[in-house]
Amino acid sequence: TSITVQWGPVECIHQNGEITGYRVRYGEEGSSEEARSIQMVSGDSSGGMTTVSGLTKETVYTVQVAAVTSSGTGVYSDPLTVKTPDDVFLSLNGTVIP
């Protein structure tokens, strides 16, 4: 099972240098930050989208996104949760489309 995660542009005032990519952090709900997986995605300040695969059906996951610049990784977004019945589409504005 997989989910598609989409995020919008990063406002200039929140950028700490040129954005070179994003980190998508995900894991089963309730897992520690250290236990969550990270998926690197190339991109720029216009936002992006990626598919996270290999997830377990009927499981609740927490997903967060952070921008990456030459200065390091920025602050992660507020966590969103989604339950994977089958394949779903998750947008960081909170919309889940089965």
TrEMBL record:
Pfam families: fn3. Coiled coil: none annotated. Residues 1-87 form the Fibronectin type-III domain. One of its GO terms (molecular function) is cytokine binding. One of its GO terms (cellular component) is external side of plasma membrane. Keywords: Disulfide bond, Glycoprotein, Receptor, Repeat, Signal. PANTHER family: CYTOKINE RECEPTOR, FIBRONECTIN TYPE-III DOMAIN-CONTAINING PROTEIN. This is Receptor-type tyrosine-protein phosphatase S. It comes from Geodia barretti. The lineage of its organism: Eukaryota, Metazoa, Porifera, Demospongiae, Heteroscleromorpha.
